[in-house]
Every structure is written in structure tokens, then in C-alpha cells.
Design a protein that fits this description.
Layout (H helix, E strand, L loop, with lengths): L5 H28 L6 E8 L10 E4 L2 E13 L2 E9 L11 E6 L6 E5 L14 E5 L4 H30 L3 H8 L1 H29 L5 H43 L12 H4 L1
Parallel strand pairs: 1-7, 2-6, 5-7
Antiparallel strand pairs: 1-4, 2-3, 3-4, 5-6
Length: 274
Amino acid sequence: METHSQKFKIRLGLFIAGGLALFVFAIFIIGKQKNLFNPVFELSANFKNISGLQVGNNIRLSGINVGTVDEITIMNDSTIRVDMLIRKEVMKFMKADCIAAIGSEGLIGDRLIVITRGSPDGPLIKEGQLIASMEPVETDAIMASLQVTAGNAEYISAQLAEIIFNVNSGKGTIGRLIQDTSIAENLSQTMYNLKTSSKGLDENMEAAKHNFLLRGYFNKKEEAALKLKAEEKKAAEKQMKADEKKAKKDQKEADKLKPEEEKPEEEKPEEENK
């Protein structure tokens, strides 16, 4: 005797078929991401610290996911070996001197391995090769450095605030210069005194020139200045004449190198014109 109706059997069959299809689709997606259905080759790299890297994490080349981490093995107290499976189709783009580094997807994303292509003229990479590696920068170290920087910035801003407060309050040299108007008046008076002193010094020098005791000294200085000016003028005239002479000589040599111009036709005798 049948205990289930025909509709129930149909629904059960559709449910099982849908579950199997979903399972196959999930296997296909996971296998594609983990390169289970693509031809791959193996590479290895040694690190001192893998910084949270796990088996199955992605491997990137030029920003493209090209493989996954296959195995992580602790070799000794200072070396961790990471085996990588990479799609064989990108093998022709990788050089033997490429470098593997551990990065992350964003600031707090999963860890991954980033591989450089290597030098353009280098030999191609070989399967199973042990490539060079670069140690990762720990997030804790970055945060500690940021905390130190933030502390220094806070201390500097507090010092600047204190300095500005003292300046606005008229404390210190700069504060007194800005707030105390008497200092500005004193500076103006000092500049005026210097200007007056300079004018008086000029007058004293002019009077000294007319003093019979110092007149000879100033006359000698004027004669020396006139003599120097005359010599400079004479040297300039001499140089000008030399330049003119050289220019004429160069012009004559240039005229000699020119081809002879056609001479104008001689005037015919008067007899031929008649």
C-alpha cells in the first residue's frame, strides 16, 4: 500500500536533483578558485614569518590571482617553507629571479602571496624552483609606529599651542614685539637716529674735504680716480680699434673667397653705335 502520493514523490525528486546540482556547482566554483581543474606547476619559498598565511590563500601575479598556497611546513626554528600551486599558463611570464612577498587583501583582509615577474631579460622560471622571498611587515609593528607618531604629533601640537598662547599674552621676545607698542616706537626712533647720523656723517665728510689739512688727501684720491677712469677709457678705445681692424681683415678674406662677379659689359665704341 502506497503511503506517499505522487506529488510528494515528484517534489522529493526535484529537491534531491536541486541539491545535487547545487553541490556540483559548489564543487566547480571551489575547484576553479583552488585550481583543481587547471594544469598547475609547483614553486616554493622560505620565510622566517608567514604572518598568518594559511593553506588555500591566493597567490597573485601583477594583481591577478594565479594560484593558491598548497602546503606550509616548518623546516626549523627560523625557516618556514611555503609550497605554491600556480596555473601553468602564466609560467611563461615568470622569470627565475622573481620574488615572493606576503601581503593582504586590504588593511584587514586575508593574507596572500604576491609574486613579482622578475627582470625582463632573465631566464624563465622552472617547475619546483625555490624562489627568493621578502619578509612581511607586521601589522602590530605598523600600529606601534603609528602610535609613536601620533604621540609625537600630540606633543608638538601642545607645544605650539603653548607658544601661541604666550605670544598672544605678550610673553617672550616675539610676544613683546607684537603686543608692546613701545618697542615698535623705539625701533622707529632708532631707525630715525641712524638716518640722522648717516646724514650728519655725510656732512662731516664734505666738510673734511674742504679742510686744508685733509684737502691734499682727497685731491689725490680724486686724481687717482680720474686717472683710472682715463686709463679705462683709453683701453676701451684701443680694444674698439683692434676689433674694427680685425673686422676689416675678416671682410677682406671673405671677399677673396667669393667667386668673381661677372663684370659689366664694356660700352661699345662710339663707332659701332653710329
